Amino acid sequence: MAKELFPSSYKCDCGHESHFSENTIKELKRMSKTKKVRLGDSSKNDAHTIIFHEGEAIGIECQKLGHCKISDYE
C-alpha cells in the first residue's frame, strides 16, 4: 500500500515519492472535507496524483500501477 510520509510527502507502491509544502497539504485536506480534491506532482516522466477526500489523503494515481490506496503514516 502507498504511504503518507508525515508531514507532507507521499510514497507510491512503485517507489516514487511526491513532496509538497505542509501548507499545501493542510489546505487540500481542508478543501476535501466537502468534495474530492486532487493534487498532481510536477514530475513529467512519472506523474503521480494524490487524491484527498473527507479531510484525508485516500489514494495515489500512478501511471505504472493505476490507483494505489494510502495506508496509515509511515
Structural write-up:
- There is one protein chain.
- A hairpin with a 7-residue loop joins strand 4 (37-40) and strand 5 (48-53).
- This protein starts with a strand and ends with a strand.
- The mean pLDDT is 91.
- The chain has one domain (2-73).
- The protein is 14% helix and 47% strand.
- The longest helix has 10 residues, at 22-31.
- The protein is globular and about 30 Å long.
- With 74 residues, the chain is mainly beta.
How is the secondary structure organized here?
Blueprint: E1 2-5, E2 9-11, E3 17-19, H1 22-31, E4 37-40, E5 48-53, E6 56-62, E7 66-73
Parallel strand pairs: 1-7
Antiparallel strand pairs: 1-2, 2-3, 4-5, 5-6, 6-7
How many structural domains can be distinguished in the coordinates? 1
- Main structural class: mainly beta
How many extended strands? Answer: 7
Helix content: 10-25%
In DSSP terms, counting alpha (H) and pi (I) runs of 4 or more, how many helices?
Answer: 1
Average pLDDT works out at 91
Query: What is the rounded Rg?
Result: 11 Å
Major pleated sheet: 7 strands, mixed
Task: Give the distance, in angstroms, between the N- and C-terminal Cα atoms.
Answer: 11 Å
